[in-house]
Amino acid sequence: MTGKVFLVGAGPGDPELITVRGLRVLRSADVVVYDRLVHPALLEAAPSSAERVFAGKHPDGPRVAQDEIVRLLVDRARRGLQVVRLKGGDPFVFGRGGEEVEALRAAGVPYEVIPGVTAAVAVPAAAEIPVTHRAYASGFSVVTGHPCDGGTGLDWSALARMPTLVVLMGLRRLPLVVARLLDSGADPSVPAAMIARGTLPDQRVVMGTLGTIARRVEEAGLQPPATLVVGRVVELCRSAVAAPNPTGPERGAV
User: Fold this and answer.
1) Is 187 inside a domain boundary?
2) Which residue in 144, 235, 159, 143 sits closest to 191, CA to CA?
3) Catalytic residue at 35?
4) pLDDT at position 105, please?
5) CATH (domain of 72)
6) Last residue of some domain: 75, 98, 114?
7) Residue 170 resides in a domain
8) Which of 14, 30, 35, 90 is catalytic?
């Protein structure tokens, strides 16, 4: 008697940004295994009888081991239950969805991946920052800020030359990210923005340049989750409209 695991992307924050299929599966779940950034309203969408299991990894608090999460998914599916693994953003964008799929395959458990709206694109869009633009950026790169202080294998020189760079989960290591880019030849005057709680009603945007953004974010007291965007596309942010000099000293928190 085997159930099924659905790896569902919950979207970047706003609960209405989950996909139609993702919401449909969530409404029929027997078990919901959810991450820290999943909006509470989505948990309410599951049946009242559904088991709800928190499997988050708080940077300053309890962390559920990945092996434990996998054991939970396999155990509940083998009981014949429909399991929704609900992840913020998209499960395959720094969400360990690939690792969980490998484990489910090895265990012989049926699964389905339901993609989600990734914060890498949606959070900048919520601040009216396009990650591509015919006049400014013909491409973009997405990295995570979590391991930037260790060996990542990333080519920081290449990232420093990208027209648009998006750094997810980069708030706590922002000074290190900035240092890596500057040391790799990035222009300190290039526009930069940090977007906290993107897509939610209390979204905040701090703007500046690569050389000033760390100081301005600290002064503004932003809290995670937050997304960094670096590149000329930042000039198109709504908060840039009132400022004739988007890299000038008068730029601050919005």
Assistant:
1) yes
2) 235
3) yes
4) 97
5) 3.40.1010.10
6) 114
7) yes
8) 35
Q: Are residues 85 and 126 in the same domain?
A: no
* pLDDT tens-digit readout, 27-69: 999 999 999 999 999 999 999 999 999 998 766 656 789 999 9
Q: Which domain holds residue 49?
A: 4-114
The Cα–Cα gap between 70 and 63 comes to 14
Q: What is the pLDDT of residues 81-119, one digit of tens each?
A: 999 999 999 999 999 999 999 999 999 999 999 999 999
Summarize pLDDT for 79-91 with one digit per residue, the tens: 999 999 999 999 9
Q: Are residues 83 and 172 in the same domain?
A: no
Q: Is 4 annotated in the active site? A: no
pTM for the full model? 0.88
Using the 3D structure, point to which of 114, 149, 180 is the last residue of a domain. Answer: 114
- The one catalytic residue in 4, 57, 75, 187 is 57
Q: Specify whether 132 is located in the same domain as 182.
A: yes
Half-sphere exposure of 128 (CA within 13 A, CB side): 8
81 and 184 assigned to the same domain:
no
| Residue 188 pLDDT exceeds 80 | yes
Domain containing residue 145: CATH number: 3.30.950.10
Length of the chain: 254
